[in-house]
């Protein structure tokens, strides 16, 4: 009973990462780490104000007796394992030799990391030879590689977002809106994260960096997708020229998201444009619920996850609308004849570069150039030898270096043999 009523170790609020040197024997390392994470990163808390190191409540499906039995079984297993480890440590036959920590080795060649990468990728084998080629380095190859880097490596979409207030039924009043209701602003902020257009290095979707199309806008990206949202309330409507530019950016988008707080239903012809094949109209309802209306042209295939007439909770509305808009944009791109995805286009361009600049080599030459790319020259053994013999010896030494770098090449031995025969025939001719 005294042990049960003993005061527990006082948890300290740490502002630095707890380490083994700073933790005392009566403190729990995991408990201290959870305390540190909850203090320095409050966004990691499951509930606001509740620390991470508070033990969870016992499950309702397990009784107290079952819980104690499980704890006793774990402690018993720990005691048996510790006793077995102590017994093995005292036994000389069970004790292994102490292993020293390997020292890092500095690379001896400038091409060490290149060869290491090829080894990791498995390219140094005959089976992978058909997938690996040596290219001729020239200005045209460098120019095409720069063009390859400038191409899109992710799927890109641009989506327009409009705000329709109460009583607005013409394009001028809709395009001159500079802000919306609080629910609309929360919805727009949930579509992605805000990026500054002046220094944004990702997909711009036609927006300008000179602040003529706004200062910031929502942007969403994954490892394979980039989405830029053209929000009408973020673009400046200072003059007629600005309205024309705004209508040009918004009207050219094929997917439109319309937040309508008007009592009447939104009509397609309010924003005159030849595009806008898919309209996702959102109508606020009571109790933070929203009605979604989807209008699309007949030739557009089906997409989801939202459908026409769906009622969505406000907490998941931005995520669901964004996913529906991306799928709608994909469905529209599938109608384009001979359309290629970004990865297909990039792969085709890579094949074209390899086809134009490929250097025809055998596997032995390829291995020799990869493992010994720099020419290897020996100094002449004596200064009195003739230059022709020195040149032949240097060539032979270079071949020997290539053979040492690539022991698997059967062709190198033939080259060495032919070199010796050539040298003997040359000396015979001189004599």
Written account of the structure:
This protein is of the alpha/beta class and 431 residues long. The longest helix has 27 residues, at 64-90. Mean pLDDT is 79; it is low at 1-11, 376-414 and 427-431. It has helices spanning 2-5, 29-40, 64-90, 112-121, 139-150, 171-175, 182-191, 240-251, 317-333, 342-357, 363-371, 387-405, 410-430; strands at residues 155-164, 193-196, 216-221, 225-231, 255-260, 278-284, 289-296, 310-313. The chain is built from 13 helices and eight strands. Strand 3 and strand 4 (225-231) form a beta hairpin. Helix 7 (182-191) crosses helix 9 and helix 12 (387-405) runs antiparallel to helix 13. The chain has an eight-stranded mixed sheet, with helices on both faces. Helix content is 40%, strand content 12%.
Trace the largest sheet across and list its strands: 2-3-4-1-5-6-7-8
Radius of gyration: 35 Å
Q: Find the count of extended strands (DSSP E, 2+ residues).
A: 8
Helix content estimate: 40-55%
Strand content: 5-15%
- Which ranges are low-confidence, i.e. pLDDT below 50, for 5 or more consecutive residues? 1-11, 376-414, 427-431
| Average pLDDT number | 79
Shape: flat
Order of helices and strands: HHHHHEHHEEEHEEEEHHHHH
Count of separate DSSP helical elements: 13
- Distance from first to last alpha carbon: 109 Å
Briefly note the structural class of the backbone.
alpha/beta
* Biggest β-sheet description: 8 strands, mixed
């Amino acid at each position: 009973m005294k042990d049960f009523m003993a005061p527990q170790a006082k948890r300290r609020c740490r502002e630095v990462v707890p380490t083994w040197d700073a933790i005392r024997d009566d403190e729990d390392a995991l408990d201290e780490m959870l305390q540190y994470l909850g203090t320095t990163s409050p966004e990691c808390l499951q509930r606001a104000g509740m620390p991470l190191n508070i033990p969870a409540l016992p499950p309702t499906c397990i009784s107290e007796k079952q819980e104690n039995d499980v704890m006793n079984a774990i402690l018993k297993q720990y005691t048996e394992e510790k006793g077995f480890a102590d017994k093995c440590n005292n036994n000389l036959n069970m004790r292994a030799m102490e292993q020293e920590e390997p020292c890092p080795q500095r690379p001896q060649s400038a091409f060490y990391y290149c060869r290491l990468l090829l080894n990791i990728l498995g390219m140094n084998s005959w089976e992978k030879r058909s997938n690996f080629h040596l290219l001729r380095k020239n200005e045209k190859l460098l120019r095409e590689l720069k063009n390859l880097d400038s191409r899109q490596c992710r799927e890109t979409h641009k989506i327009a977002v409009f705000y329709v207030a109460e009583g607005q039924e013409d394009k001028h009043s809709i395009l001159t809106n500079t802000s919306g209701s609080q629910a609309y602003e929360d919805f727009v902020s949930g579509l992605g994260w805000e990026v500054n257009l002046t220094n944004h290095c990702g997909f711009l979707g036609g927006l300008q960096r000179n602040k003529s199309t706004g200062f910031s806008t929502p942007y969403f990206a994954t490892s394979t997708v980039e989405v830029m949202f053209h929000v009408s309330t973020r673009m400046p409507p200072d003059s007629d020229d600005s309205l024309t530019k705004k209508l040009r950016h918004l009207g050219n988008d094929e997917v439109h998201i319309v937040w309508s707080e008007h009592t009447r239903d939104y009509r397609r012809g309010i924003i005159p444009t030849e595009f806008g094949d898919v309209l996702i109209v959102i109508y606020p309802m009571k109790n933070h619920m929203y009605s979604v209306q989807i209008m699309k042209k007949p030739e557009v295939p089906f997409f989801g996850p939202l459908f026409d007439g769906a009622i969505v909770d406000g907490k998941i509305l931005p995520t669901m609308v964004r996913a529906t808009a991306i799928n709608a944009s994909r469905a529209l791109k599938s109608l384009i004849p001979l359309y290629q995805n970004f990865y297909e286009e990039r792969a085709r361009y890579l094949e074209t570069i390899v086809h134009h600049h490929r250097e025809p080599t055998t596997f032995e030459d390829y291995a020799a150039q990869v493992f010994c790319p720099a020419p290897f020259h020996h100094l002449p053994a004596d200064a009195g030898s003739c230059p022709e013999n020195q040149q032949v010896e240097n060539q032979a030494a270079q071949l020997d270096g290539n053979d040492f770098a690539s022991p698997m090449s059967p062709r190198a031995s033939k080259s060495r043999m032919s070199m010796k025969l050539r040298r003997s025939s040359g000396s015979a001719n001189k004599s």
